Amino acid sequence: MAGQTRAEKMEETREKLIAAGRKAFADKGFSGASMDELTAEAGLTRGALYHNFGDKRGLMAAVVDQIDTAMATKAQKAGEKAGGGWNGLMAEGAAYIEMALEPEVQRIVLLDGPAVLGDPSQWPSQNRCLQATIATLHDLAGDGLIKPVDIEALARLLNGVALNAALWVAASDDAHMTLPKAIAAFECLASGVLNDAPSPGNRVG
Question: What is the pLDDT of residues 135-164, one digit of tens each?
């Protein structure tokens, strides 16, 4: 029982630090966030941060993973609402790109994230998203809806297009103007994999 209580306390400490880091990184950016201020915000010490995450970069990785995972979940729900299959895959991509309009996502995941943590395709959250895309593409291939290309290669490139579209939206001077152009280009490029490629406005049911 004592071990379980200790584990619960450790998890609570981690959650407090992630929440404080998330607020600090969103408000001030990674470079502007003070470790002393964010640990004080959580009612903890620098030692707790070092013990749980190693350093500020480790905390950033945990925050990005939490937000990016939530983004993938939200995109997946959009795909399910669209009926799954190819329509669902396109809806997921569009939803992910659209989240680049959210200030927290912009600053933490799409602007500071790559600068601090490196190539987003190597993030654990992106790898989980990749596996989900691979599964969907396998189903589409089984139904004969897509061309006979390597599924993993296709999944990596499709996810990369959506991610880079989101990065472009986040970094643009007018994100709201850039968004529809980014989504339209994503759909146009993606449609090329279909056996009977429709125009972006005429998706496969």
Answer: 999 999 999 999 999 999 999 999 999 999
Distance separating alpha carbons of residues 125 and 139, to the nearest angstrom = 22
Query: CA–CA separation, 141 vs 201, rounded Å?
Result: 22
Three-state DSSP state, 146: strand
User: Any idea what DSSP says for residue 198?
Assistant: P
Tokens of 128: 């989980």
Length of the chain: 205
Three-state DSSP state, 76: helix
**Three-state DSSP state, 156:** helix
| Separation CA 50–CA 46 (nearest Å) | 6
Degrees (nearest 5) of the Cα angle 90, 101, 71?
Answer: 55
Q: Is 72 left (phi over 0), alpha (psi -120 to 50) or beta?
A: alpha
Rounded CA separation 76/109 (Å): 18
Contact 26, 47 (CB under 8 A): no
Cα angle 131, 145, 76 (rounded to 5 degrees) comes to: 35
Q: Of 124, 137, 128, 68, which Cα lies nearest the Cα of 99? A: 68
The encoded tokens of residue 2 equal: 């004592």
Residues forming a β-bridge with 194: 146
* pLDDT-based confidence at residue 10 (cuts at 50, 70, 90): confident
φ, ψ of residue 202 in degrees (nearest 5): -120, 75
Residue 19 CB-half CA count within 13 A: 11
